[in-house]
């Protein structure tokens, strides 16, 4: 697992960040999912996929997995929320997520089945032959599973966004009988700058910075209040993903990214000017040497070897010097 994978997994493990991501994607920024209503669960999905006689088990490890307890009409409702974090496009993401979700549903069925072992004798629960065979009673219910892909890249996601997108068959008569599993995706470049205001944590700042990381100036960040106070963990994630090298007082827990980013752009510009000046002086010295060697009637080939430049370069310099003397 690479450094960015580890860093994004760690950042997305925070309950407030997970709640923010799902509130943005599912509820358009409305604060429906509360962090205090989230409970982390084991991220390992493990099952015997072909029955008890299977020789090989399937084990998959999600990036983050959490149970959300919601209250509807006075009753508790539970939903499993999973995130998969990608800094690069995964062209088989639909299959990967479908497998994760299927394993989670199978795990719930297996847990229900195990919970009934011996209970029919001690609690009086009677299972019909069909229920015994299924390991699942008629009135049992599953917790729905939502997997959200958070893409930490600045390119457009050009991979498949559903199982149907991955098929070689385009015949609608065939496809209508095949369930179309679609991925849920947050794609930075597809989120408008106004929509980023719907994020309530620095996840929005991270993704918006990724979107604009290739911009030549920092005009997009000016006036953005959210960037004036960004948690250091989010800033470190921005630096790791984009190479921005945003620096600030390391003792501070929050960073004024607006100021730090503008300073880094200014420093880069100043450094570029300094390098340009040095390069200019160096080129001036080389041109002076070429002029001196030319006055000594040295050939183009000889001069090129002396100054470690191409013969074409030497010819252009001599032509420029000659034109200046006219």
Give a structural overview.
- The chain has 12 helices and 9 strands.
- It is of the alpha/beta class and 326 residues long.
- It folds into 2 domains: 3-201, no CATH class; 283-325.
- It has a 5-stranded mixed β-sheet, with helices on both faces. A two-stranded antiparallel sheet has the order 2-3.
- Helix 8 packs parallel to helix 9 (232-242).
- The longest helix has 39 residues, at 257-295.
- The mean pLDDT is 83.
Topology overview:
Layout: H1 3-11, H2 15-27, E1 38-40, E2 44-47, E3 58-61, E4 64-72, E5 75-86, H3 93-115, H4 119-122, H5 129-134, E6 145-151, H6 163-166, H7 172-175, E7 184-186, H8 203-211, E8 230-231, H9 232-242, E9 254-255, H10 257-295, H11 300-307, H12 311-325
Parallel strand pairs: 5-6, 6-7
Antiparallel strand pairs: 1-4, 2-3, 4-5, 8-9
Helix pairs in contact: 1-9, 8-9, 10-11, 10-12, 11-12
């Amino acid at each position: 697992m690479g450094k960015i994978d580890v860093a994004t997994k760690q950042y997305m493990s925070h309950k407030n960040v997970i709640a923010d991501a799902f509130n943005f994607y599912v509820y358009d920024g409305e604060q429906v999912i509360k962090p205090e209503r989230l409970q982390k669960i084991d991220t390992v999905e493990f099952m015997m996929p072909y029955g008890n006689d299977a020789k090989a088990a399937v084990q998959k490890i999600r990036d983050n997995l959490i149970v959300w307890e919601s209250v509807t009409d006075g009753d508790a409702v539970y939903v499993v929320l999973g995130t998969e974090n990608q800094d690069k496009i995964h062209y088989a993401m639909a299959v990967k997520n479908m497998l994760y979700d299927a394993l989670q549903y199978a795990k719930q069925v297996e847990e229900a089945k195990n919970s009934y072992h011996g209970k029919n004798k001690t609690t009086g629960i009677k299972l019909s032959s069909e229920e015994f065979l299924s390991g699942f009673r008629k009135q049992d219910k599953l917790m729905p599973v939502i997997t959200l892909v958070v893409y930490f890249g600045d390119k457009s996601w050009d991979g498949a966004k559903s199982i149907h997108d991955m098929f070689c068959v385009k015949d609608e008569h065939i496809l209508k009988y095949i369930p179309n599993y679609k991925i849920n995706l947050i794609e930075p470049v597809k989120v408008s700058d106004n929509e980023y205001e719907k994020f309530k944590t620095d996840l929005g700042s991270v993704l918006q910075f990724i979107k604009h990381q290739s911009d030549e100036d920092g005009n997009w960040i000016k006036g953005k209040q959210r960037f004036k106070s960004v948690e250091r963990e989010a800033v470190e994630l921005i630096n790791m993903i984009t190479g921005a090298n945003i620096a600030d007082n390391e003792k501070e827990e929050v960073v004024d990214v607006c100021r730090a980013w503008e300073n880094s752009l200014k420093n880069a510009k100043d450094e570029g000017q300094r390098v340009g000046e040095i390069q200019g002086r160096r080129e001036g010295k080389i041109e002076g040497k070429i002029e001196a060697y030319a006055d000594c009637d040295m050939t183009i080939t000889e001069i090129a070897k002396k100054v470690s430049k191409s013969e074409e370069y030497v010819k252009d310099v001599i032509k420029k010097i000659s034109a200046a003397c006219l």
